[in-house]
Design goal:
With 478 residues, the protein is mainly α. It has 2 domains: 407 residues, MFS general substrate transporter like domains (Growth Hormone, Chain: A), CATH 1.20.1250; 53 residues. It contains 20 helices and no strands. Its main location: membrane. It is found in: Cell membrane. Pfam families: MFS_1. This is MFS transporter.
């Protein structure tokens, strides 16, 4: 562990960093329940409404790699503080926005500063708990917070919208920012990568534009997969990502050293994180629409109705942590996605009937399954990472979650539109909505089955390699 920090200070630092992770994750969903009110207040169209969610995830995911390198080179505590201040100012702007364009732009700025915050926080966690049982405990706590954050955002968004108004879904971040800055001053220690640190400018440009183009292309698929805009942006995104990979093989200090993603276990963890993000960000949006538009729940009721998901995750996490030390990560990473897939298939059987019969059981099962996924996932995503790459590996893990969530939301939206479009005119509106939501949940279930297959193929190694003991982290060989 970091020698200059006392044991008590380290656990306070864990609290501050976990709070930060909660903020950046929950902000991906906190506005979901408030979207109908924000749309009415600012005159947003239905297509623009989605961008209130997508702008955050797009900026967050596309800039995370650069944010990770800035954290490594400039200083992780310093980057954390700047990210906190910028995030707070962007949240303030969004909370007082007078037009839809201002709100979407503010959400994009939130995502950009979150791209500084998230990798800095995870890198600080890595250097604060470098090995041993305390590291495993810290990552279990951090992973549980990350896994529950999206659902917590839905609950908090419902409470704020019901008792105050939708603007407080952004203004509430100012409280978190103040706590985070005070905590950083008191409990966090500066660290940075040693040696000659130079920024990979062309790598940053190509990966940012490439990821942005891919997400925009998938977002445009709502108008049809054959739409010229969709095809063009997807093609440009693929070319730019390929160019980025080529650049990374040529520069001395790449933005993303390919060793980070070609490591078999880490590669599997990143892919699983992307697929889990598609469910936690994409599928939960359609769940909130179902609760409000079909079941007629208020914002508060809809927010509370999602609470069984994070509660189940938090209740299961301590048991999963114990199970992890006994059987290792691989069985959990295979079982968890399959449990979540089963829950989503159960959810896809909705008819517009009672919440307790059709939605509640699926949410409980999904929360249990997500505990099996998220408790070991953060540790696997950093398996065998050299200290010099801690920030960029952290950024890649978070980027996978956000880009997976934004692409997942876009794909689910395209599937929803394809189902509702041909049939909506001949069906009652409620039936058309239910059919579209059901199709989105089936697509999300397919994503989690794919995640289980990835775990079978990629998450390999001895139990000691995948879940290090007090002797320290052991690199997993590809």
């Amino acid at each position: 562990m970091s020698a200059s920090l006392s044991a008590r200070t380290r656990w306070w630092a864990l609290g501050v960093l976990s709070l930060t992770q909660l903020v950046v994750v929950l902000d991906g969903t906190i506005v979901n329940i408030a979207l109908p009110q924000a749309q009415e207040a600012l005159g947003l169209t239905d297509s623009a409404r989605q961008w209130v969610v997508t702008a955050y995830a797009l900026a967050f995911g596309a800039l995370l790699l650069l944010g990770g390198r800035i954290a490594d080179y400039w200083g992780r505590k310093r980057t954390y503080a700047v990210g906190m201040v910028g995030f707070g100012l962007a949240s303030l702007w969004g909370g007082i926005a007078s037009s839809g364009f201002e709100l979407i732009l503010a959400r994009g700025l939130q995502g950009a500063f979150a791209a500084l915050l998230a990798p800095a926080a995870l890198a600080l966690l890595t250097v604060t708990f470098p090995s041993g049982r305390d590291r495993n405990t810290a990552f279990a706590v951090f992973g549980t917070v990350a896994g529950a954050g999206a659902a917590v955002g839905l609950v908090l968004g419902g409470v704020l919208t019901e008792f105050l108004n939708w603007r407080w879904c952004l203004l509430v971040n100012i409280f978190f920012v103040i706590v985070g800055l005070i905590g950083a001053f008191l409990f966090l220690e500066e660290s940075r990568a040693e040696g000659d640190n130079r920024y990979d400018v062309w790598g940053a440009v190509t990966v940012t534009l490439g990821l942005g183009s891919l997400v925009y292309g998938f977002s445009s698929a709502e108008r049809g997969w054959g739409n010229p805009v969709t095809i063009t942006f997807l093609a440009v995104g693929v070319v730019l990502i390929a160019l980025f990979v080529w650049i990374e093989t040529k520069v001395d200090q790449p933005l993303l050293p390919l060793r980070v993603i070609t490591h078999r276990v880490r590669a599997g963890a990143f892919l699983i994180q992307a697929l889990a993000g598609s469910v936690m960000i994409g599928a939960t949006l359609y769940l909130t629409f179902h609760l409000q538009l079909v079941l007629g729940m208020s914002a508060l009721s809809a927010g509370l109705a999602t609470l069984p998901l994070p509660v189940a995750t938090m209740i299961a996490a301590p048991f999963v942590t114990k199970l992890l030390s006994r059987i290792g990560a691989r069985p959990l990473m295979i079982t968890g996605p399959l449990v979540v897939a089963g829950a989503l298939l159960l959810l896809s059987r909705i008819t517009g009937g009672a919440y307790a019969a059709e939605v509640l059981p699926a949410l409980i099962v999904m929360g249990l399954g997500m505990a099996f996924v998220f408790v070991p996932l953060q540790n696997l995503a950093l398996a065998g990472v050299p200290a010099h790459d801690a920030g960029v590996a952290s950024a890649t893990a978070n980027s996978a979650m956000q880009i997976g969530g934004s692409i997942g939301l876009s794909v689910f939206t395209a599937i929803y539109a394809a189902v509702v479009g041909p049939h909506g005119a001949g069906m009652p509106p409620e039936s058309a909505l239910v059919s579209g939501y059901s199709a989105a949940f089936v697509a999300a279930a397919v994503c989690m089955v794919i995640a289980a297959v990835i775990a079978v193929v990629f998450v390999r190694g001895s139990r000691q390699e995948l879940y290090p003991s007090e002797a320290g982290m052991v690199a997993v060989h590809s």
